[in-house]
Every structure is written in C-alpha cells, then in structure tokens.
Design brief:
With 318 residues, the chain is mostly helical. Among the domains are: 98 residues, no CATH class; 109 residues. The radius of gyration is 38 Å and the shape is flat.
Length: 318
C-alpha cells in the first residue's frame, strides 16, 4: 500500500470521526435543550398545581354544600340511589334545569335527610303517644320526607313549563325573522343563544345546550332531542322537528313558521277564553256566598222585622 493510499485512508477516517463528532454534538445539544424544556414545563406545572391547591379549599374546609355533594354523589349511581332518584325524578330535574351531578346529589341528600329527620321530629314532639300514634308518625314522616323534594321540584318545573310555553311564539318569530334575512339554521340558533338569552330565559338556555351538543359532534337531530322532549310540549316537538328537517333538506321556512306562529296564537286565545269561562263560573260561587246575604238583608229585612214585631205583639196580647 502506497503513501498516497495511507493518506487517503487517514483523511477518510478523520472525516468520518469529524462527522460523528458533529452529529454527536448536535444530538447532545438537542437532548440538553429538550431536557431544559422538560424542566421548564415541570416547573410551570408544579407552580400551577400549587396555585390551584392554594385556590381550592382544603377538604376539611369545604363549604357545607360541597361536602353534601361529595358525600351524596357516590350514592346516586348505586341501586339505592337509583331508587331515590329514579328516571322520573331525573326527568323532573331536567325540566328544572338542574339535572347534573350536583342537582342529583342534592336531591338525593334532601330526600334522605327529610325522610330521617321528620320522623325523629315527630317522635320528639309526640313521644308520650301510644304505639299506633308512633307508627302513624313514622309512616307520615317517611312519606312526607320522601315526597316533599319532589313536590317542590314539580312546582318549579310547572312554572318553567309555563314560561317555556309563553316564550315559544317569540322564539318562532325570531327564527322566522333571522331565516328571512338569509341566515342558516346554525347561525339563527347562535344569534338567539347569544343576543336574546335575556329575553328567552328558558328556551334560550335549552337552545344553548343544543348548540353546545351540536358543536361537540352530535347530529342536529340528536342535539335537538332534549329541546323537543324536555318540557313535554307538542309545540316544542314540532319546532324541533321543523329545525331538523330544514337542516337536512333545506328549503324556505318562513311560511311554515308564520303559519305555526298563527296557530299557536289562536290556541293561546282559545286557552284564554277557556280560563275566562272557568273564572266566570268560580266568581258565580263567590257572588252567591258574599252578595246573597247582603241582598237578602236589604230586600227582605223590612219584611222580617214586620213579622217579628207582629209575633211579638201577639205574644204580648196572649
């Protein structure tokens, strides 16, 4: 092997070594920068966790409401919790707008607390009674404690159903107006959600829930299912079906919404006439109870006095 060949081999080895050195240095530098970035991320996460732990109350310092929710949330999905918070009760909570983990937990806790406390209070008040009285106290205490939260929620749900029925004509007019200016269904619902939530307190919240579900990936039919069924209102179901059909098939929707709005207003007029008729019948009974005694005194009082005086004179003569 000649000197030139030795020189070329040494140069090749030096070039390979230099290349390996450069590649290794670059890799070491990249690893060092990656390590520095990881350390920075870990420090930020640690600082955020520390700030969150400082912001959140300590479990021993939780407010009483959060303590009740934490204690009751684990029982809601158990067989015992499903008996106390059944599907009918969940639908009622849905109509009240509180069908979440917190609402279900508070409903469960209220039923358990009242079902235990009311019989105890009755026993402390009527502790000297007999055994059958004690049995009645326990029975009625359990029954009232079990049903009282549901009665309260039924009252709230009834008010929300009434408000939803009152807001429906305005919602239809808004949809007809927004569709008339060329907005799509999604844009119309977004405008109703953002701009008219203070006017449509009940239906605006339901539309916001439907829009969030649609943005989360559900279809229009799936997202409008709650809006159509939550208040058990046939008119809301019709509006939901109409929105789904326009979303799927397109077409002009102003005229159907106009006819639908007129039908709802006519139905409200008929309902108002029916209520006026019922009030008239009730007022007849009130008038009989309040005005009839006064009318009898005014019209027949003189005759009654004459009869009484005549009878008094006859008894005096006898």
């Amino acid at each position: 092997m000649s000197t030139t060949q030795h020189t070329l081999i040494l140069l090749a080895i030096l070039l390979v070594a230099t290349a390996l050195f450069l590649i290794g240095g670059a890799m070491i530098g990249r690893v060092w920068r990656l390590k520095q970035n990881l350390n920075t991320i870990d420090q930020k996460i640690a600082s955020q966790n520390y700030a969150a732990s400082e912001a959140q109350p300590v479990p021993g310092r939780l407010p009483w409401k959060e303590r009740i929710v934490l204690l009751s949330a684990g029982w809601v999905d158990t067989p015992f919790g499903q008996q106390l918070v059944a599907e009918e009760d969940r639908h009622l909570l849905d109509q009240c707008g509180v069908n979440d983990k917190e609402g279900q937990a508070l409903f469960f806790a209220a039923r358990v607390a009242l079902a235990i406390s009311l019989p105890l209070i009755g026993y402390l008040v009527f502790e000297n009674g007999s055994w059958w009285r004690l049995l009645l106290i326990v029975f009625f205490g359990l029954a009232i404690g079990y049903m009282l939260p549901k009665w309260i929620m039924q009252r709230v749900a009834k008010q929300r159903r009434r408000k939803a029925a009152e807001e429906l004509p305005l919602l239809i007019d808004l949809l007809r107006l927004l569709q008339g200016v060329g907005l799509s269904v999604d844009q119309s619902l977004h405008v109703v959600e953002t701009e008219f939530s203070n006017v449509l307190e009940i239906l605006g919240g339901e539309i916001a829930i439907a829009a969030s579900q649609y943005r989360a990936g559900r279809t229009r039919e799936q997202s409008m299912r709650r809006f159509s069924t939550v208040f058990d209102n046939a008119d809301l179901q019709s509006v939901g079906r109409l929105i789904v059909q326009v979303e799927h098939h397109g077409g002009a929707v102003q005229e159907p919404l106009k006819l639908f709005s007129e039908r709802i207003r006519e139905q409200r007029k008929l309902d108002m006439k029916e209520r006026v008729g019922k009030v008239t019948v009730k007022m007849t009974g009130v008038m009989v109870l309040t005005l009839l005694p006064g009318l009898l005194v005014i019209t027949g009082g003189v005759g009654f006095l004459a009869v009484i005086r005549a009878l008094t004179k006859m008894s005096g003569n006898l």
